UniProtKB/TrEMBL annotation:
A Gene Ontology molecular function term of the record: isomerase activity
Entry-linked PANTHER family: DNA DAMAGE-REPAIR_TOLERATION PROTEIN DRT102, RIBOSE-5-PHOSPHATE ISOMERASE B
Family: Belongs to the LacAB/RpiB family.
Protein name from the UniProt record: Ribose 5-phosphate isomerase B
Source organism of this protein record: Flavihumibacter stibioxidans
Lineage: Bacteria, Pseudomonadati, Bacteroidota, Chitinophagia, Chitinophagales
Length: 150
């Protein structure tokens, strides 16, 4: 069961290294009943990750998406790009426990996945964990409130 509202779509984007994972994650989310707004890329040809991470992040930041998923080779590039957006808290996840903690402790609204370093079934599991985990609030809410520079 998701902690996010299905009344909004999921925003998803990737570079060439994440294309295969994006397609699989998109199909997985749709099978679970989610609408998905795909910001590309649309194939395995070499592209620049910011061209896809920025529009995905803007859609999440604007409140038009329930949450976002970004994928690139290491997930570092998309995470760095996404976190330039003041209303985004993007967490780079390489482990299921990390996917849980970025929601519980950081109230992350975008999960960033490293396609070259985690198997696809594990990436799908991390997306599920991310969706199913609620923000714990409490002492973490004060910390999250201090993240923004504005």
């Amino acid at each position: 069961m998701s902690t996010f509202s299905k009344s909004l779509p999921v925003a998803i984007g990737c570079d060439h290294a994440g294309y295969e994972y994006k397609e699989a994650i998109k199909a997985h989310l749709q099978k679970l009943g989610w609408q998905v707004k795909d910001f590309g890329t649309d194939g395995p040809g070499s592209v620049d990750y910011p061209d896809f991470a920025h529009p995905t992040s803007s859609f999440v930041e604007s409140g038009e998406a329930a949450f976002g998923v970004l994928i690139c080779g290491s997930a570092n590039g998309v995470a760095i790009t996404a976190n330039k957006h003041q209303g985004v808290r993007a967490g780079l996840c390489w482990d299921n426990e990390v996917a849980k903690l970025v929601r519980m402790h950081n109230n992350a609204n975008i999960i960033c996945l490293p396609a070259r370093f985690v198997a696809l079934p594990y990436a799908l599991q991390m997306v599920d964990t991310f969706m199913e985990t609620a923000f714990e609030g409490g002492r973490h809410a004060n910390r999250v409130g201090k993240i923004s520079c504005s």
